[in-house]
Amino acid sequence: MAGDSLGYIAALDIGTTTIRCQIIDNRGSCKGSSFDKINLHYPDPGSVEIDPDELWESVVLTVLNAIKGT
């Protein structure tokens, strides 16, 4: 039956200062979670930037760490 499958969902939340990932099973239980801080850069007064390569690396690391918790 489809309801008996062992599927998982990765729920990813990328906010202004943190990245969070939770791995949820088909019963709605959290099987793994992880978070990381986003590295913010302040090139000029009143300016805030996020390096897209750093952000991507953090996203991948956060998801992998959440998966390791399953």
TrEMBL record:
Pfam families: FGGY_N. One of its GO terms (molecular function) is kinase activity. Residues 8-63 form the Carbohydrate kinase FGGY N-terminal domain. GO terms for biological process: carbohydrate metabolic process. It comes from the Eukaryota. This is Carbohydrate kinase FGGY N-terminal domain-containing protein. It comes from Ceutorhynchus assimilis (cabbage seed weevil). The lineage of its organism: Eukaryota, Metazoa, Ecdysozoa, Arthropoda, Hexapoda.
